Amino acid sequence: MKSRVVITGLGVVSPVGQGIVSFETALRSGISGIRQNRWHDTAEARSQLVGQIDPFEPPSQLSREERKHLSRADQYALAATIEALAHTRFDPASVGGERVGVVLGSGGGVANSEAYVEHAYKETVGRPSTLLSVSPDSAGAAIARHFGLHGPRSSIMTACSSGATAIGYAADFIQCGFADVMLAGGTESLSHVTFSGFNALKALATGRNRPFDLRRDGIVLGEGAAILVLESYEHAMARGARILAELAGYGISSDANHITAPHPEGDGMARAMEQAISRAGVSLDAIGYINAHGTGTALNDKSETMAIHRVFGEHAKSTAVSSIKPMIGHTLSAAGAIESVATILGLRGQFLPPTLNYEEPDPECDLDYVPNVARNASFQYAMKNSLAFGGNNTSLIFKRHES
């Protein structure tokens, strides 16, 4: 029998605040961290909005070398990890870092490579070490070095589903006996390449991000990181840890359809949800909340709604669904992780985070999207969906833990 996997610690760095307390306050109050772009000139772009972490205060625990050489994405990941481990009151050094690992979704330190190329164009010598943070593996490596982790280490790059997929893979490492404790999540920092790419695709919103709204027309980019501490139930109980939630199951699938567009009828997302529900062994009516991928693009929101209808049937319209992207932006590799933290906080606090900027219903998006204002609710299971370019889909199911 496979070990149960529980969540005992959370850490987050987001545009609505650095730390769990400010993040939960924003979720309950409907506070948005989307602001005018002060990061670089976007006068000719579709969007002048961004979810930026400004200012960011690196934790005092970071060494001088880490502050100097690590990318912003790596530093975000470390900051979230430091909070998550403090939250769970577990020091990996207490077990010599043995049987403690990390799985992280990351797009790498793209901004560092941009800085290096800029130096080259100016015919000045950039530090080769700047390029070390370009790899998607860099953030996980930084965490392993900082905390002396000797368990499994892996990096996930499945675009916008990376953070959620990392959580599922980390649970597998525990259930297969490779580790007792895993740090899992995702990190992303803003870059000119990312912004200009989404702008060229005409995927950026021309105004506010409006998931599931009839007038939705694109995403607003964001940045940040989140880390979840996953443990086997036995390990958590043996050390007297406070259990925040349980990862009851997850599913993963591929559309194999298009490089950017989701399957038009949500086929892959539906299969991922069906897998997660089957592995969790839970009835459809027990899932009281779905934290949607909900990007605010025409195709994504429609296909995700269709997938929910396909899987939940008559229960779809009585199941609350919301997207927090109007609060934090689309944080890409970090999205599944940050939004998983939001899902767990809602499950633990028995509230539903709202979908901001929802004003005009779309007949093709006809679910309960918790419009604009958070709502108290009573539910035992919650689902987190993540979709991504390339047709990558991941669905996680979290179970509330009764203290």
Shape: globular
Q: Which consecutive residue ranges, at least 5 long each, have pLDDT under 50?
A: none
Order of SSEs: EEHEEHHEHHEHEHEHEHEHEHHEEEE
Q: Which structural class do you get from the secondary structure elements?
A: alpha/beta
Radius of gyration: 20 Å
Oligomer state equals single chain
* CATH homologous superfamily annotation of the largest domain: Thiolase/Chalcone synthase
The helix content, as a percent range, equals: 25-40%
CATH class annotation of the largest domain: Alpha Beta
In total, how many beta strands? 15
Could you report the average pLDDT, rounded to the nearest whole number? 93
Please give the alpha-carbon distance between the first and last residues. 24 Å
Largest sheet: 11 strands, mixed
Write the layout of secondary structure elements.
Blueprint: E1 5-14, E2 17-18, H1 20-29, E3 35-36, E4 49-50, H2 64-69, H3 72-88, E5 100-106, H4 110-121, H5 138-147, E6 153-156, H6 162-175, E7 181-188, H7 192-200, E8 224-232, H8 233-238, E9 245-254, H9 267-280, E10 287-291, H10 298-312, E11 320-322, H11 325-328, H12 335-349, E12 351-352, E13 375-376, E14 381-388, E15 392-400
Parallel strand pairs: 5-6, 5-7, 10-11, 10-14
Antiparallel strand pairs: 1-2, 1-8, 1-9, 3-4, 7-8, 9-15, 12-13, 14-15
Task: Describe this entry's structure for a reader.
With 403 residues, the chain is α/β, with parallel strands linked by helices. Helices cover 33% and strands 21% of the residues. Strand 14 and strand 15 form a beta hairpin. The mean pLDDT is 93.
